[in-house]
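Weekly structure sync, notes
Attendees: PL (lead), two postdocs, one rotation student
Agenda item 3: pending single-chain targets
PL asked that the sequence for the first pending target be pasted directly into the notes so everyone works from the same version. It is reproduced below exactly as submitted, 1208 residues in total.
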Amino acid sequence: PARQGLDTPAACLAASRAVPGGRVGQGGAGRFVQGSVDMENHYAQGTLIWIKDPEEVWVQAEIVNSSEKEIIAKRQGSDDDSSVIVLSPNEPIFLRTSDTYSSEGLTVLDDLTQLTHLHEPAVLSSLQNRFDIDKIYTFTGPILIALNPFKGIPGLYAEDVLKSFISIKPSMKPHVFNTSNSAYRGICDRQKSQTVLISGESGAGKTETTKHVMKFLAMAGSTNGIVTDVERQVLESNPLLEAFGNARTLRNDNSSRFGKFIELQFRGGDKSAIETGPGQHARLCGARIRTYLLEKVRVADQQEGERNYHIFYEACAAATKLSGTTIYKYPQVLSKEKVKAERDVDLEGFKDLGNFAYLTKSTCRVLKDNDDVEMFERRINAMQTIGIAADDIQDIFRVIAAVLHLGNVRFDAPPGNSEGSQAMQECSDSIELAAKLTGVARSALEGSLCNQNRVVMKEKVRSPVTVRTASDNRDALAKALYGMIFDFIVKTSNESIGFIEEVKLFVGVLDIFGFECFKMNSFEQVCINFTNERLQQFFNSFVFKLEEQLYAREGIPWDPLDFPDNQDAVEILQAKGTGIFAMLDEECFVPAGTDQGFLNKLMKQHKGHRRFDEIKTKPSWFVIKHFAGPVQYCTEGFLDKNKDMLSNDIIETMGVHSVNLFVKKMFNHEKKFAEVLHPESLESKGTGPSKKKRITVSSEFKDQLTSLMDIVDLTDPHFIRCIKPNPQNLPDLYDRKGVTEQLRYGGVLQVVQVSRAGYPVRTHHQECWDDYKVLCNSEKVRGLKMIDDLKLRAKGMLDHLNAELNLPKPPHGGKEGYAVGKTMVFFKLGAYERLKFVRLELMSKSTTLIQACWRRKIKMRVYKAIQVCTRHVEALLRTKQARLDLQKRRSLVAATKLQSSMRMHLAKKQYRGILAKVVKIQAWRKGIIGRKGAKEYRKYIFARKIQRNWRRYQDQKVYKIFRKTILLAQERMRLVSAKSQMQKLKKEAKEVGALMAKSQKAAEQANELRKRNEELEAVQLQLTSEKKNLQKKIQDLEEKVSEMTQSLEEAKVAAAAALAKAAEDSKTVVETEMLNKMTVQMEEKDAQLAKLQEDMAAIQAAGQDQGKKLQEAETRYQQLLKTTTLQTTAGMTMGASASMAAGRAAAFASKSNSNRHVNIQLVGASKTGKSALFEKLIQDQDPSKLEGFGQGNILSHLTVTIDGSAIK
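Predicted structure, written out during the meeting:
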């Protein structure tokens, strides 16, 4: 225990050694603190305590005064009158220590058993302090407490953090990986199987904690961090079991509705069996999953705000993605690289979840931040990874769809038979599909649900059942099918992963439901709480052994009666004949047995039992006082839930007549149905009707739990208790009420009781001597100081104090309330508190004396300081008076000066006022004269304006007369012109046929011109090509001519040089033949040059002719284009005129409708926007023709749809 600091006088008064579990007041039922303090030990002023509060459960307070009749305390952090509380001696009070701080902030302990005061408020406060700084893991002795943060804490589960915990030396830091490593080192170092027991209420994080434990063990049991198929299959089994065994509850979106025990087998890396010594490595080689008490009732019924099992919603969500087919192409959401194999899944029978009665019991249908389709594909991937065959996967979904459609079947009584039942007509599709998916005939399925075979005088008589019984049969079949699917998945997973029988070393991970206490507790809560009673009994015995080993090491006597025991709570539930489960099984097989009859038998059998009670205001309820606290149970539905049996007719229909081999195989392999399906095999084994064992849910559960506890008893246990900090599932919110309930019901406080029973207070010899030597007289202290052995010194001191203070004796007849061991001193609670309060009283008196001396010294200092200050103040006052007199004289002089200045100011003000008035009078007179002149000037201006307006009026009058006359003349001239134009139009109307023929002929001519135009274009292209060839030839010839010219020049130069040489050398005989030869060569060269020049001239002439021809062709082509355009325009204009004339004639003649051709011609120079206008028209009216518009030539035709009409 840590020492307290003496920061204040109150803290000094309260400073004491720890009082772990020290509860002041009377002990109550269910409290974990033993013993009480006599009121003769008054509390010292300033003692820090915890007191009850209706909102915060426990709040901090400080004792102001105490007496035998009352205790006055003040709440910490409040200074008003309401903070003072008067407590009676019987109210529970718990001592507390002051908070200690370090450089990192508030000091929080990793292990709550190290708390100075170990009780409920101290545990509650310590957990909150750790939760506020995101330290969610805390040790409480051998238990690891895990608070669900409802948020991601960075780096808490990182891979490097996980690897840091894989070590031979255990870590002292509380973490789920630390507990997992302890289990792993247990199998490696001690070669003994281990068990990790994880418990907690729904939403506390059991499933996630289980995942982390399995992840650590898989990583620790792998080679170099490489995960094999076994480890991968073990990890993938979790999400698959979650799909079929988890559902949303009022407290959790992913609550496990079953218990599971996972055995992970380990052995040496290269040996057939484990032979690893300390520090060696064990390899994960196999696994097996065992499940307990699946909540099958959830299949048919859920509370408001809850959901059915996840797999139903995920399959329905996947089916809604399909359109016109039932085949789901897997995968669609997950990437193909991440899945094991692609396949088709037939989702026949699945549709939107709103169509199924089993999924609409509650309005909660969708989970937040959850994609059901993605989760559906993850489930299929998990099935493939584990090794479930493709056909089995398909059969699983068929049975699940059959369960949903069974829920849609409704029954009513047939006409004339109110005791019978039949499927309603509107449910025929559902029962038909359910029968098809399970492989039975619709009539057989309906008959087995609505009828029952009874054996009367060794003959079977078929009789109808009521509507309610038929509905119960339907729900029972649905629950049985789903339960067998769940068992099949577990069995297949185990077979796929592989469990090696010869390997006996394993680490078991038990994910089990925690203690439950709701407003409405039923049969499921009895089973769950019975499991927790057995686990608590196991924990008690485990801690008992640890305490026994500690006392043996220290060599001190101890009494086993000091330790609590819940054997009676276990016996009242499981005792043969008289236990609650046994009496329930008996009532289930009694003819006409009822829930009320079962309760009456319980009342009669267990009346007066310390663990049993009745509720008189609720005749169908009873109370069991569990180790964690009392729970009220309602017996309604106990018998039906315990039976959970199908009728023989349904069993025969499914197990014999079903053509679905998967369903038939499941029913035939179920042991509970062997009596109906295989009676001959039971008779051959000697277990016929006279020897058969009737199986109920409770008996099956007890057998499973007994088998589980037999396994756990042979292992070293590790405990993890998960706590849900608030019911809203919000991060950073700590609900003290809810956490307190979980601490009480979860057995965490009972852990403190067990671990601190016997001698709860422990301290070292030196600490004991330092703390309590002040209680001995000085002579005794001097004598004991001479003893060097700390054990003997502490023993002598305690013996002396025992004689002086008469320390309380143990309640079970022990001699002393303390024991001195080899390294520590152990105290009973009563003896320790007596020593503590005597020490507190002595410290209080010593503190009072110290405070008195200190106060006298302080007062003397204050008096002397006041004396000095008084003299100084007198001097200051005299100085101030002198300054006031001087100020008065100065004020008189200043007042005289102010008066003279004021008089001068008033005189100036009077003068300025008179001057202003004179100026104002002058301005008024001048204003009158000015306004009179302005008035005369305005009259002159207005007279001129009137004259101008009158002259304008006269002119306008004459103009209007002339204008009217001209308009009349123009109107008559237009009338004459219109009449003549009308006559012309009539003549034109008669020539419509001729004009139409001309238009057609013009169109034909335009076509011929277009063809001719195309031919001319081809000719032009040919001429262009020939021109390019001729130009190339001319270029080549020019190059040859230049080469020949150069050669000729070189020859001339050579000849000239030869002639010069011959002239100079007169002595040399010139050979005539050589000169002749050179002359001939020069003549030949001249001839060749002349020929080349002629050829070049001919080629140039030909090129000029070709150029002229090409220019003439281009000229003819342009002329043709102009001619064609003009002819086409003229034809269109003539056609338009003819059409207009014909239209007018037709309108005047027959008043009938006809087609009209409207020709629009856009005329303008190049690049003025004609094409852009046409493009805009086409884009607005018919965008599909926009592509053809851009590809046209100079003349092109395009049909555009405008307002539904095709226009060329």
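Discussion points:
- The longest strand covers residues 57-66.
- The longest helix spans residues 829-990.
Action: rotation student to compare against the earlier draft before next sync.
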